Amino acid sequence: MSHAPTFSKPAKGWTRRKQARPGEILEAAVSVFAEKGFAAARMEDIAARAGVTKGTIYLYFPSKEEVFKTLARETVSVALAAVAQQVREFKGPSRELLVTLLSSIAAFLQDKDRAMLPKIIISESGNFPELARFWRSEVVDKALAMVTGVITQGVAHGEFRSLPPEHVARLCVAPIILSLIWRTTFAPLETIPFDHHRLFATHLDVLLKGLEPEGSTK
Fold this sequence. Notes:
The chain is mainly α. It has 2 domains: 10-62, Arc Repressor Mutant, subunit A, CATH 1.10.10; 64-211, Tetracycline Repressor, domain 2.
C-alpha cells in the first residue's frame, strides 16, 4: 500500500528570513552604490554584501536598475509621502509650513548613503537616462509640487510677495542640492569641515526675508 508523500512546513525562522531578504538586499545595495556608483556596482557585489547568492537577488529583483528603483521607492518616496501627509495636516501659517517642509527634506538627505542616491542620478544620468526619468517623476516632481503649493498658498494669503511659485520652489531647494553635492564630492578633500547646518539656517533667513510682502514691517 503506497502512501502519499508528506512535506514538512518550513520553520518559522526560515520564513522570516525569506521575508527579510529583500530588505537586506536593499540595505546592502545602498552601501554598494554609495561606494562604487551605479555603473561600477555589480549584482555580485550586492549579493556578497547581503550575504546571499547572486541567484537569490534575481528571485526578488530582475535587474540592477530595479534594485535602484525599489530602493528609491522604499526610502525617498516613502519619506516624501510622510512629508506630504504632514503638509496636508499643517494648520499654521505658510511661512512656518515652508520651514518645516524644507527642514524635512534637508534632514532626510543628511544620511550619507541616502545622499548618494540623487548624487548617482546627477553624475550618471547621461548613461542611464531611464533612471533619470524615474527619479524625476518619483522624487523631483513630487518634491517641487509640494514646495510650489506652499509658495502659491503663501502668495494667495498675502504672506509672501507675488513671485513665480515654480521658480521660487527651485530656489528653495537649490542650496539643499548644493549641500548634498558638496558633502558627497568635496567633503573628503576638506581640512576644515564645512558647516552645512549653518548654511541651511542662513538660507532660510535669506529666503524668508526675500519672500516678505512689499512694505512688510517684519
